[in-house]
Structures are given as structure tokens and as C-alpha cells.
Amino acid sequence: MEADFWHQMWRSGRVGFHQPDVNAFLKKHWKKLNLSGHEQVFVPLCGKSLDMLWLNQQGHTVLGVELSEKALQEFVTENGLQATTLKHPRFSGFEMDKMSLLSGDFFDVSVKECREVKAVYDRAALVALPPEMRQQYASHLKAVLAPGVPILLIAMDYDQSLQSGPPFAVSALEVKALFEDRFNIEKVESDTFERKGVQTTENVFVLIPKT
Ligand SMILES: C[S@@+](CC[C@H](N)C(=O)[O-])C[C@H]1O[C@@H](n2cnc3c(N)ncnc32)[C@H](O)[C@@H]1O
């Protein structure tokens, strides 16, 4: 998707992907990444997700990246957080206790920003992107992450011919094709429901780096 599409969504408040509660799959499956609790977690395409606060509450520091500065401003305001302006040569954004939110393009995030990252949480990030960008997303993520960083990935799957994205349909096979060179992939939960009249499955994957 073009950046303008997302800026327009945030400007007009059409953010149906935003969840009013912490994601239940995150709460249930996060422990499967075998972290001790103090690590930095990278949240690509973070929106104003409350999941970042939950990760903080578990003891993690959070590094988010989001195209829309408005989304990040809403995150700070709606949650009554004390934030300062991020001082960074290439990103604007916000700095808080245990959280850095970069406002800008995920594809501009480099190894430097991710040097302390020890885990990744992707909910509605991969599925926000059309097919050709998903390949770039996976390649970029793998390029900026240090070896040994696990990922919790939540992706939607449905018959793409019945509905257009975003969210795009991303099958378990696609997740495998995108990540199996570097990760052992386990599907830990599936939930099927009807979304806008289309049978939809949400799959939760734990990606553990191959040694
Ligand atoms: C479907 S939403 C998901 C947001 C969040 N992960 C959540 O669970 O609520 C996708 C988000 O990615 C942002 N986005 C899209 N392309 C991006 C990019 N290239 N870099 C950074 N953020 C991007 C959009 O502005 C939007 O807020």
C-alpha cells in the first residue's frame, strides 16, 4: 500500500484494525518465545496498539515503527503517557519510559535501530501489505534483526478472490515460504470466524530462529 493510503486512513479515523483491548493471542502465546521479560521487543507497523503497553507491563522495552505520526500522537494522548520528542537523525516520533516510537517507514529502519531488539511482535503488519511488499517486508525484517531473534506473528487467511485487502490474506504456506530459511515455524493456534461475510481464519505463528 502507498503511504498516502495509510495517512488518509488515520486522518479520517478509519482504523477498524485497531483493537480496544490487548490481543488475546499475544497474552496466551507470548511465553512461547522463551524470553526472560526485560528484552526489547520490535513492533513493526505498530499503529496505536495497546499491545505495546502490555509488553511494557511484562517488563519489556518496546521499539515501534509507524508511518503515521498521528497514530503515535493518539497512542500517547489516549493512554495519558508522558512522552518527549524522539531525537533521531532519520525518524521523528516519541520517547517514553521503556518505549521508543519511530514515526516513519519500516523499510528505513536499519540494523542500528534494531541492535538491542531481542524479539518481534507482528499483529496485522505482514497482512497490511500487498503480496510484493510482503516479500520485501520479510527480507527487510530478516536483514535488520540480529541472529537468534524470535517472532510472534498473527496473520489472517481467507479467500482473497472474495475480498480485497488490507488486511490481505496470508496463508500458512506463505509464512513458511517467507521465513523458513531462517526460522522453525510452528502454528500454535487458529481461530475461524466470519468477517464481512467471508470465512476467515486467524493463525498464530511462533517463529524460532534456526541454530
Ligand atoms: C493494519 S494496521 C496494524 C496496526 C497495529 N499493528 C495493530 O495491531 O493495531 C497497519 C499499520 O501499519 C502502518 N504502516 C503501513 N505501512 C507502513 C510502513 N511501510 N512503515 C511503517 N508503518 C506502516 C499503517 O499506518 C497502519 O497503522
UniProtKB/TrEMBL annotation:
Q: Which GO terms describe its molecular function?
A: thiopurine S-methyltransferase activity
As recorded in UniProt, its EC number(s) are 2.1.1.67
Name where it's found.
Cytoplasm
Q: According to its UniProt record, what is one Pfam family this protein matches?
A: TPMT
Which InterPro entries does this UniProt record tie to the protein? SAM-dependent_MTases_sf, Thiopur_S-MeTfrase_Se/Te_detox, Thiopurine_S-MeTrfase, TPMT
Q: Where does S-adenosyl-L-methionine bind?
A: 10, 45, 66, 123
Quick one: where is this thing mainly located? Answer: cytoplasm
Output the GO biological process annotations, alphabetical, semicolon-separated: methylation; response to metal ion
A single GO CC term, please? cytoplasm
Q: Which residues form a coiled coil?
A: none
Q: Which reaction does it catalyse?
A: S-adenosyl-L-methionine + a thiopurine = S-adenosyl-L-homocysteine + a thiopurine S-methylether
Keyword list, A-Z: Cytoplasm, Methyltransferase, S-adenosyl-L-methionine, Transferase
- Record-stated family: Belongs to the class I-like SAM-binding methyltransferase superfamily. TPMT family.
Under what name is this protein listed?
Thiopurine S-methyltransferase
Which source organism does the UniProt entry give?
Hydrogenovibrio crunogenus
Q: Lineage in the entry?
A: Bacteria, Pseudomonadati, Pseudomonadota, Gammaproteobacteria, Thiotrichales
